[in-house]
Amino acid sequence: MIWLVLTLTLRQLLGQRRTLFLAAVAVLPLVAAIIYQASGGEGDAGEFTAQVVLYGLIVTALLPLTAVLLSTAAIGSEIEDGTIVYLLSKPVERWRILAGKLLAAWGATTVIVLASALVGSVVALVGEDDWSILGGFLIALAAGSLAYSSLFVMLSLFTSRALLAGIAYAFIWEGVITNFAPGVQRFSIREYTASIAEAAGDISPWVFEAELGLTYSVILVVVVTAVAAGLAVVRLARFELSGVE
Amino acid sequence: MSAEGTAPEAAVEVLDVSRWYGNVVAVNGISFALGPGITGLLGPNGAGKTTLLNMIAGFLKPSAGEVRVLGAPSFGTPEMYRRVALVPEREATYEFLTGYQFVLLGARMHELPDPEEAALQALRMVEMTEAADRATGGYSKGMKQRIKVAAALVHDPDVLLLDEPFNGMDPRQRLQMMELLQRMAEAGRTVLFSSHILEEVERLGDNVLVVVAGRLAAAGDFRALRNMMTDRPHSYTIRSSDNRTLATTLMAEESVFGIELTDGKLVVRTNELGAFVQAAPRAAQAVGVSLLEVRPEDESLESVFEYLVSR
Questions:
Q1: B110 and A90 in contact by Cβ < 8 A?
Q2: Residues A5 and B94 sit within 8 Å (Cβ to Cβ)
Q3: What CATH number is associated with residue B86?
Q4: Given A15, A94, A240, which is nearest B96 (Cβ)?
Q5: pLDDT in tens, A55-71
Q6: Does a structural domain hold residue B6?
Q7: ipTM score assigned to the predicted complex
Q8: Are B288 and B200 contained in the same domain?
Q9: Which residues of B touch A89 (CB under 8 A)?
Q10: Which residues of chain B lie closer than 8 angstroms to A12, CB-CB?
Q11: d(CA A57, CA B107)
Q12: Domain range holding B171?
């Protein structure tokens, strides 16, 4: 049943314009790497890959953007056009429907983000041996996209403005406010992702240093994912078709 | 069907149900119970039909009262859908799926033993086998309606709820769908469909629920309802060569209970439609007045509904 909802959702996502837009945005890290190489590859290639390609472009921009666009579409667009009725008018436990939706959003986000990270890094790191940087980031991006997907899928069940709310969270809260208010990094999926990347990739502190520890970040990714998914299931079980006819 | 209370065998029980959105009351204190057979839910647009159907289908929680389907509360009971199906009013389907895939999706979600055969069977019932391999996104409105009905029938439900099922269908498709629903009702299913078109309900629904402005305005046999509507007061606008003389003569007719003379026309109120239609030309002829125009004033469905509510 989960597989049925998952494949249906992936086909829905594939046909959307926002997916095409994301595919175009996902090329930007590769473009940055090509420009870096074309300009002679000055400076440390590992540092450039970690700070510009992987953190600067992917962790802070592509990851949350992809997650918010795909996760809010995964269930939000079905609520909007009314097709959600065809899933919910079935004798299927609501957690299974939610699991299918979440796995589709997470899977699609991960594929786009990892492909972008892999291709951009390979081009930037040609001739270098700093591959552990990449390994750490790939694990971290998969973990970060799970937490983001769960959060944004949940948001789309609570508000029809989930896209706006998600963008505000990712780019105002995580992008701006956490920089000025020390301590609130604890409430930022971006920080969990960076911290996991740093620890899992064995990256030198002078190349890249995150604020939070590995254990703490992994626990928070699990907690955010579980709480958001749990709230989403509860909401789906009490789902109402909105509006007066 | 009974308008009040519950019969023990009722498949659908609506008990003093209201639903409001903020300050807007969409459904207001409605009660009825339905057993096997076909029932038309009639009312003008915005009367609360969709809200009522959505509550029965478990997609809206009543603000007050209770909706029970097959003995259990309809809201928050996914298990109910093993025996209940809803055909929503909205047109949207998964446009990238073919008709067959769309119906098959439903069969698989119901975990039917032979989903492929069940899907084909449902497609045959709505005569959609020929178009089954085309993407539903390219379907006409009538085809979308039929594929939605096929998806709802795939698990052979005991209770079938349809929201404006005839929208967009051509007359032949409409007739075919009506026959299908009638067959389901004859086989002991409970079929409830909504419509804002009197003729659709007249042709299908022996039993009728009339909803106006969120209230149950009438319930029961369609023929009784038809009589009530025929006997209601009608207004006619008449223009003639001598309105004043005609008014004096018409006032003597028993079928007339009020006349207003304004702006070069007469507005005549009658409570016996048949008698008045015969009496008016006769009376005019008797006093040598020519009738230039005789036009019913309030024949819109809305006015029929308004009358039923005001009773």
A1: yes
A2: no
A3: 3.40.50.300
A4: A15
A5: 999 999 999 999 999 99
A6: no
A7: 0.88
A8: no
A9: 57-59, 81, 84-86
A10: 94, 96
A11: 44
A12: 12-225
Are B213 and B236 contained in the same domain? no
Residue B49: closest CA among B161, B179, B205, B191: B161
Q: Are strands B190-195 and B159-162 parallel, antiparallel or unpaired?
A: parallel
Classify residue B5: in a domain, yes or no. Answer: no
Of B59, B194, B212, which to mutate for an interface test with A (greatest number of A Cβ within 10 Å)?
A: B59
Mutate to test the interface with B, among A90, A92, A97, A235 (most CBs of B within 10 A): A90
Supply the DSSP symbol for B86: E
- Residue B211, classified by CB atoms within 10 Å of its CB into exposed (0-12), middle (13-18) or buried (19+), is buried
**Number of domains chain B contains:** 2
B59 vs A: CB within 8 A: yes
Q: Which two tokens stand for residue A188?
A: 């930022």
**Same domain flag for B21 and B61:** yes
* Cβ contacts of B52 within 8 Å, gap of 6 or more: B14, B17, B19, B27, B30, B41, B194, B211
Residue B208 lies in a domain: yes
Per DSSP, what are the bridge partners of residue A72?
Answer: none
Co-location of B236 and B212 in the same domain: no
Hey, are the CB atoms on B105 and A245 less than 8 Å from each other? no
Are B47 and B62 within one domain?
Answer: yes
For B103, nearest residue in chain A (alpha carbons): A86
| Whether A17 contacts chain B with CB within 8 A | no
Residue B84 to residue B74: CA distance in whole angstroms:
10
Residue found under tokens 């899992």: A200
Per-residue pLDDT of chain B (311 residues; tens, 9 = 90+): 444 444 446 899 999 999 998 888 999 999 999 999 999 998 888 889 999 999 999 999 999 999 999 999 999 999 999 999 999 999 899 999 999 999 999 999 999 999 999 999 999 999 999 999 999 999 998 899 999 999 999 999 999 999 999 888 888 888 888 999 999 999 999 999 998 877 778 777 678 898 888 998 888 877 777 666 666 677 888 999 999 999 999 988 888 888 998 888 899 988 777 788 888 888 899 999 998 888 777 555 556 666 666 65
